[in-house]
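Revision sheet: structure tokens.
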Amino acid sequence: MIFEFADSEVSRCACKDGRLQLHFSAARLRDANDPRADTVWAPVVLTAEHAEPWEALDTSACMGRLRQGFVLHASQRIQKLPLPCELQGVVTMELEFAQGGVVHVRCDGLSIHPLQGADKVGAYQC
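Predicted:
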């Protein structure tokens, strides 16, 4: 599966002792082997180790739908990550939320994993 930042929904953000965790209640996922397959949604957790926000991090501003996002790693700008994913070394992440907030973080390692026991769904509707 491939994780896409755009349209994914962050439900919780926690930052403690240099570890930033973003819990996605609905992460946008695509089949890595079939780019024409329908999008599915699933809960995932993104963890940034030794995270250093570029400005004061307001965790309440790190929630909601993402308009776009990307990471810079090894001189590459990456908007889609394999799931699961482990990036070692310096990573810079920028997330732009639909409500207008922007978060910039530099970290020394980033991982993204599906939430254990969570199912993928075709759509979330209220």
